[in-house]
Design goal:
Blueprint (H helix, E strand, L loop, with lengths): L10 H6 L13 H5 L5 H4 L2 H7 L23 E7 L13 H10 L2 E8 L2 H13 L8 E5 H10 L11 H6 L17 E13 H4 L7 H6 L7 E4 L2 H11 L9 H16 L3 E5 L3 H7 L4 E5 H10 L3 E4 L5 E9 L7 H10 L3 H11 L9 H7 L1 H4 L8 H5 L1 E2 L6 H15 L2
Parallel strand pairs: 1-2, 1-3, 5-6, 5-7, 9-10
Antiparallel strand pairs: 3-9, 4-7, 4-8, 4-9
Helix pairs in contact: 12-20, 16-17
Length: 415
């Protein structure tokens, strides 16, 4: 299986901009890798490639497999996460929240940032999981569509609610019941990712943008609109604009959304489909408005007074990165304790202040305000009730749907 090896982003770069490669290379952030197989990999036959790697076809869920829990005797956790997705101190050598957890519990966290891409990481752990073996990891963080697949295959363990009192109590309502894990029996969100409309006020020059319809239909924006190369984001936001629910749509609905975007492509309304490289175009004003990811917009707003965002009245799309315990993990209880720790408001606030994604923890705002008042008052980080009510998730797809939809979207974008 071909693997994608991006260059590592420095903490300074990511904390400041979350959008640049080293050495002045093309703009890219962790978010642009977040659902790689949902875009290019699957569109280029990634599902077939995954099958060729020995991954079973989707079918009846297999039961998750527990193993003897060594947590009581072995005070450790092996935790795999995405690069630059944890708070660090000024020396960039320590993770304050992890250190505080160890000091409190005596549990040492062996923290590894070895997830650069969902497909790549799946390729690393698939052979062991398929063979019923320990992956060497007690906790992993993967994006919602991959979390759904792991649960469907029966390759992650059901969580013990008695070890997750804070998580159960403090999980924000908008994240409680994804269709792929109702009631969060197998997973808890690490962070949320929101898709919104960003714009450059100077480039708009008084043109009003309030909706996806404005992006697609306003002739004054011709050639200055950006859509995302991620199928779920662009189609999901268009479905919402059409009055359809991304959590409950049909093939005909998908085709209608695709046709609507295709019309805008044909008349030159859309400048291009992008990953995170929309950030430079938006800042320069080459794009007047575009679909964007909230984590980027938080940083862009801090760097450029011309950049801002709106939440359409029709709503916006939210996805999640999620903590799970793989089958055969040796330290399940310890992992659950760490999951629960990040649902306490103080650690959640420290983490959120550093990484600037959507915090899934209720009650964190006053704690975050002590660290960063601007972050605490930013609805892209701490959604208020009105914003949370507009949040929608893209429904789970069968393997057949995923292949068909990605092929259609690839034709639309010219990928």
């Amino acid at each position: 299986m071909e693997q994608y090896e991006p260059e590592r982003l420095s903490p300074v770069q990511l904390a400041a901009l979350r959008r640049s490669f080293r050495n002045g290379r093309a703009s890219l952030t962790r978010r642009s890798l977040l659902r790689a197989s949902a875009g290019g990999a699957l569109a280029a036959g990634g599902l077939g490639a995954l099958s060729a790697c020995g991954i079973p076809a989707a079918g009846k869920p297999q039961g998750s497999v527990s193993s003897e829990d060594h947590s009581a005797k072995e005070k450790t956790i092996n935790f795999s996460n995405w690069t630059e997705y944890m708070d660090v101190d000024d020396s960039e050598k320590h993770h304050p929240t992890l250190d505080a957890f160890t000091k409190r519990t005596g549990i040492t966290v062996k923290y590894t940032e070895d997830i650069n891409d969902n497909v790549e990481f799946f390729g690393k752990i698939q052979p062991q999981l398929a063979a019923g073996q320990d992956t060497g990891r007690d906790m992993i963080v993967v994006t919602d569509w991959l979390a759904a697949r792991l649960i469907r295959f029966g390759w992650v363990q059901k969580l013990d609610p008695s070890n997750l009192p804070h998580a159960y109590t403090n999980l924000s309502a908008q994240f409680r019941n994804p269709d792929w894990d109702p009631g969060r029996a197998y997973s808890y969100p690490w962070q949320g990712i929101s898709t919104v409309i960003a714009y450059n006020k100077k480039a708009l020059d008084g043109i009003e943008v309030r909706s996806v319809s404005d992006l697609l239909d306003n002739p004054k924006l011709k050639g200055r609109v950006g859509f995302l190369s991620e199928m779920r984001d662009s189609i999901g936001m268009t479905l919402l604009d059409m009055g359809k629910d991304p959590a409950n749509f049909t093939d005909d609905d998908f085709d209608a959304a695709t046709a609507r975007i295709q019309k805008a492509v044909d008349k030159g309304q859309i400048r291009r489909f992008t990953g995170n490289d929309y950030t430079s175009d938006l800042t320069k004003g080459d794009l007047a408005a575009c679909l964007a990811w909230a984590g980027d917009v938080v940083q862009l707003k801090a760097d450029s007074p011309d950049v801002d965002f709106i939440i359409p009245d029709s709503g916006y799309l939210t996805s999640t990165d999620n903590m799970l315990v793989p089958n055969k993990a040796r330290h399940k209880t310890n992992a659950e304790r760490l999951m629960d720790y990040y649902y306490e408001p103080e650690p959640a606030a420290e983490l959120s202040a550093y990484i600037n994604y959507v915090c899934p923890v209720d009650g964190v705002k006053p704690y975050l305000a002590k660290i960063d008042k601007d972050a605490a008052n930013n609805p892209l980080i701490i959604p208020d009730k009105a914003m949370a009510a507009k949040s929608h998730a893209f429904r789970s797809l069968s393997s057949k749907e995923e292949t068909a939809y990605e092929e259609k979207f690839a034709k639309l974008t010219g990928a």
